Amino acid sequence: MCEANAYIIRDGKEELVMExxxxxxxENDGIQMVNIFGDQKFLRAHIHALFLVNHKIILKE
Amino acid sequence: MCEANAYIIRDGKEELVMExxxxxxxENDGIQMVNIFGDQKFLRAHIHALFLVNHKIILKE
Lengths: 61, 61
Description:
Two copies of one chain form a homodimer. The first copy, chain A, is mainly β. Chain A has a domain at 4-45. Chain A has strands spanning 4-10, 13-27, 30-35, 40-43, 46-51, 56-60. In chain A, β1 and β2 (13-27) form a beta hairpin. Chain A binds chain B through residues 1-4, 21-26, 36, 46-53, 55, and chain B through 1-4, 21-26, 36, 46-53, 55.
């Protein structure tokens, strides 16, 4: 499975915000994420970088 | 390996723009992508959606 973990950069550190993310949809004011378990999370953040081979999504506020 | 294929939506259709994408970095005026072979591509587009389990990156101009 190729889901990824989502981290947000806060105070220069990566903080895990959601594991096993499958779907991401940037919206006007943030990011909507859904993981492989069907859990949803909305964050007021934007995509900073994706490292898919390393299963990492980096978000920034 | 968990790279994904990047498609851009043009005229309502998904057009393949890069295979085996590993890294994506949104920039001010577009998207910088690097695939697992080290090839780089810059596109004047933004991330519309990601479907990681299905290895799909959807971009929009």
